[in-house]
Amino acid sequence: MSPTRKAHLDTFAITLLLACCMFWGFQQVLLKATVAEVPPVFQAFVRFAMATAAIGAWCLWRGRVAPGAAAPPGSWRAGLLAGALFAGEFACIYVGLQYTSASRLTVFLYSSPFWVALLLPRFIPGERLHTWQWLGLAAAFVGVGLALGDGLAGRAAGAHPLAWLGDALGLAAGLMWALTTVVIRSTALARVAPEHQLLYQVAVSTALLPLLSLALGETWSWDFSAFAWASLLVQALVGAFASYLAWMWMLARYPATKMSSFVFLTPVFALLFGAGWLGEPITAGLVAALGLVAVGIVLVNRKPAAA
After folding, report:
1. Is 307 in a helix, a strand, or coil?
2. Could you tell me what percent of the chain has a pLDDT over 90?
3. Is 179 within 8 Å of 119 (Cβ atoms)?
4. How far is it, in rounded angstroms, from Cα 109 to Cα 97?
5. Which of 20, 51, 115, 211 is the most exposed place for a label (fewest CB within 10 A)?
6. Which residues constitute the domain of residue 48?
7. Cβ-count burial of 60 within 10 angstroms (0-12 exposed, 13-18 middle, 19+ buried)?
8. Which residue windows are transmembrane per the record (predicted)?
């Protein structure tokens, strides 16, 4: 039975989205710290291998059959495509973190809502945004840009010489994230259980990422520090399993364009965690950015007037 879709975000969805965005903001800083010890694509492979095992166990515990059993026609093709896009997204993120800061890559990654807003209405007219919602997206984007610009001011001299490559990979990751959302919402994959949608993504990533890691000449080693193992477990079980499963569950029930507006909070949380972990200052510009993001979220989730 297909889940009942809602036209607007309710309190539960907003709370869950805030929790996910807070963790994802922390995760960006965590990934950057772990890349210094574990090769990036190999790290992503280990993460998604753990997540595949966790989601498979979840499906067995819930009594869910395998994704291919009694699946809607064509869903497996869409699942493989979504998985390939998902793998590409995270390959770009992990590799990009070698060349640019976590905060800077995040602002490009979270261009995803704009791609979703531009592309999804071409397939699902009901996802079209109204004028005030576009204004909300613009306000949120300005807020994120202000926060990141404020946090990065004065650091250009110490940037990696290939920082432009990290920025480009972040932008590519944002586009792939948006395309994954479009595939999930506009194909037969939309009628597949959320845990099976996520299983496609992490399982295909587990199959593709080691090939990419070897092609890039990364050295594989399992002699990690306690911090690296803890990081991988948090990335896999909280990030790739719990938070992404929650995101997939919400995609099946709430408007994707309105959900996507919340991801503008993630870069702000990344800066906050960066301040707590790395000692970066919280300035008036950051406070102003938080206000703009809040205004953007209110506008994007504003209900249209009754006819």
Report:
1. coil
2. 29
3. yes
4. 11
5. 211
6. 11-127+157-254
7. exposed
8. 12-30, 42-60, 80-99, 105-124, 131-148, 168-186, 198-220, 226-247, 259-278, 284-301
Residue 290 in domain? no
Q: Decide if 56 is inside a domain.
A: yes
The pLDDT tens digits of the residues spanning 75-89 come to: 888 999 999 999 999
Look at the pTM and tell me if it is higher than 0.85: no
Whether 192 is covered by a domain: the verdict is: yes
Q: Which two tokens stand for residue 131?
A: 């004028």
Query: How far is the C-alpha of 273 from the C-alpha of 118, rounded, in Å?
Result: 31
* CB-based burial label for 57 (10 Å; 0-12, 13-18, 19+): exposed
Average pLDDT of the residues in 261-275: 78
- 224-to-29, 35, 134, 221, 291 alpha-carbon distances in Å: 18, 12, 46, 8, 41
**Overall domain count for the chain:** 1
Phi, psi of 53 (to 5 degrees): -60, -40
